[in-house]
Amino acid sequence: MVVAESASPRTVARTVTPALHRLAVLLGVLALIAILGVVLSTRAVDDLTEGLQPASVANQSVLQDLTDLESAVGAWARSGDPGALDDYQQALARLPGHQQVVEQYAADDARLLGLVQQQRAAAERWLDDYAQPRVRAPGGAETFRMARYRNGQRLFEQVRAAHQETSGLFGSRVREASADATWRLRATIASVAVLTLLGWLVVGRSRRRLLAEVSRPLVALEAVVHQMAKDPSARARLDGPREVRSVALALNELADAQSRARAVEQKVTEELRVLDTARDDFVSNVSHELRTPLTTIHGYLEMVAEEFEDTMTPRHERILEASRRNVARLKTLIDDLLTLSKAENRTTTLESVDLVPLVRDAVTDVSITASGRGISLEQDLGAAPVMVLADRPMLGRAFLNVLSNAVKFSLDQGRVSVSLSVEESDDGATAVVAVRDRGIGIPAAELERLGSRFFRASNAVTNEIAGTGLGLRIVQTIVDKHGGDVRIDSEEGRGTRVVLRLPVQTGPS
């Protein structure tokens, strides 16, 4: 039953677009927060790894340089070894570079800068008041002065104290930077997780709405389409977006048109059935009514031939022979019409048939006619049986027609070849019966008309070869009834090859 359409239904675009907009906005915000979080986290990590940590390492190197200087001064004071002076000069050359790295980083941090400057001042006092004077003085145990040594130790302890404060602040800054980078990363992950959950909720809500407003009407429409195949009276509900309702309305109109067409088709079928019955009756009645006078005419002709056998003039003999020939032609035409009518309309009774003896019998039936014209018949039927489901008399008539045509259209002293083989394919086995003659052939322009009722090739008419033009039509009809097909290849003046293909019987006979 068709449900009335509500006023102004929304289109699919108006139903889907808001959900897509919400999802797009949510994805945009999610991407923006993710990018911002990554940028901030990266900046914090870069500041930690490229600025603070190298400055902290450089600050430790400052202490190491001062320690190396203090060791070199002590070695010079104790031994006067010139190598100690070389160590002193190398450490002194390294010290400014490390101090510069520390001071460049601390330039933006007032507290750290103050401690760094205190550390530098303590180092310079130690160098100016103790280290430099001591290395300029002679070295060796005899130059050792306890007062000078104690003053140097006191100044270096001040250096150590200043460095300890600076290192402590550097360590604090490192921990703060690490914590800040970790917090930014966690905040980014949390924000992305919250927005993802929100997006999941939005998608779920949009999915339920789309299912209710778009998907379910489409599924219902699909179900109605399948139902219509079984129940022509089924109709689609006018539900869902405007496009779905339009499709449902068009489907209902199509179903109504099909119902009307089905009724017309049924009426035409009944009329065709009546016409077919009338045609069959007409053919049968006309054939019967024609056979009776033809039989009578044939009898009278034979009586005339016997009574005036020795007294007829050549002219009368020609007239009598022409009459006999035309009576035989009419009788053949009537027989072919009846055979074609039976092939087209009779219910085929199928049985398991071996094609080998059936084809061999057809060859035997035409052998007398062939030998009378010096035509040799070559057979290649094989020894193994080839079983098909067939109406034996009808299929035998088809083989006989093909062989009769091959002999009839062959030249005297010619040759006709008959072969039977089986072809295997994915669709099953197929029996192939091929008949090849070397006769007059068929003009190329007339090949497509083969099989038409009463059609005869022009060269057959020119050569006055008798025939009704129904033989090949009978063959095609019989083979079609058996689920096979007929293929014809011909070349005028070189002969014709007719191939009949039939499905081989499978399973038990």
From TrEMBL:
Swiss-Prot/TrEMBL keywords: Kinase, Membrane, Phosphoprotein, Transferase, Transmembrane, Transmembrane helix, Two-component regulatory system
Principal subcellular localisation of the protein: membrane
Protein EC: 2.7.13.3
Cofactor(s) this protein cannot do without: a divalent metal cation
Listed GO CC annotations: plasma membrane
SUPFAM superfamilies from the UniProt entry: ATPase domain of HSP90 chaperone/DNA topoisomerase II/histidine kinase, Homodimeric domain of signal transducing histidine kinase
Catalytic activity annotation: ATP + protein L-histidine = ADP + protein N-phospho-L-histidine
Residue span(s) of domain Histidine kinase: 285-506
Transmembrane segments: 20-40, 183-203
Name listed for the protein in its UniProt record: histidine kinase
Naturally occurring in which organism (per UniProt): Nocardioides marinisabuli
Lineage: Bacteria, Bacillati, Actinomycetota, Actinomycetes, Propionibacteriales
